[in-house]
Amino acid sequence: MQKFTCYVVLLLFLLCFFQAFSWSQFNQGENYEGSSDLINLEYHMGPVLASAINLYIIWYGQWNPTHQATIRDFLDSLSSSSSVPYPSVADWWDTVRLYTDQTGSNITATISISGEFYDSGYSHGVYLSRLSMQSIIKAAVTSHSRPLPLNPHNGLYLVLTSQDVQVEDFCRAVCGFHYFTFPILVGVTVPYAWVGYSGTQCPGVDGMISVIAHELAEVSSNPLINAWYAGEDPTAPTEIADLCLGLYGSGGGGGYMGKVYKDAWGNGYNVHGVKGRRFLVQWVWNPVKRRCFGPNALD
């Protein structure tokens, strides 16, 4: 959740583009690839997102259409067809789907972009708190111009802030987080996630993709902060992506992200997406193998 630091993402991408750079000093998360005895991930009887997800994107601020297209293609890749080469984003999502609720229902395989809202006028300014995200969602679902539906049944709201927006603790402690709305503020309880974009302080849209993946995995497996997490404190849970911070391939750990593929320009990636896209997304904890895992794993 909030533990996913921008330092990890920044240093990962420095590794991809400048391979001589050493970043172990910045890696603030423990890595558990291949280790099961350190993990006490438990199910706390709450729901997971088992129904087909209607994803609603709120573009807050001014956005580059090229960056928006990249993000949309990643989100569309989560439920992509078999025509996408292996390992795919959908194959990565298969690990997330291993988590179940009380009834034995798995997290859904279907995630559809069901609406987009453009808050290009910065309705709540350019300096935001974490609680501001709920007010932004409220503004999007009550707008007089093309509002998003308020969907408490299978809606998931993704707030993406542009590079000129400063969010509390952004790039100092967090790149993204997830939570759920309060009925007193929004009207109903719906899960949501926020991810920020910064073209200067943190990596750009490529780094943002991995944070989006991180938060989607965790909001799906722990939407009301009472389902899958490790630790005793539900207000600061260690979730399925937190357990694998900085791990993107086999052999990762101790500041090394693991073995990934390289494109013709030397850029790292580990999954394929729609339209020939390639993405670098962090691994998540596999509850069956009891270790961090991704579809590009060598074993």
TrEMBL record:
Leader sequence segment: 1-24
Classification via Pfam families: Phi_1
Keyword Hydrolase included in the entry's annotation: no
Gene Ontology cellular-component terms listed: apoplast
Alphabetical list of InterPro entries matching this protein: EXORDIUM-like (IPR006766)
Localization terms from the record: Secreted, Extracellular space, Apoplast
Keywords: Apoplast, Secreted, Signal
Family, similarity comment: Belongs to the EXORDIUM family.
PANTHER family in UniProt: PROTEIN EXORDIUM-LIKE 5, PROTEIN EXORDIUM-LIKE 7
Protein name per the record: Protein EXORDIUM-like 7
Organism name: Gossypium raimondii (Peruvian cotton)
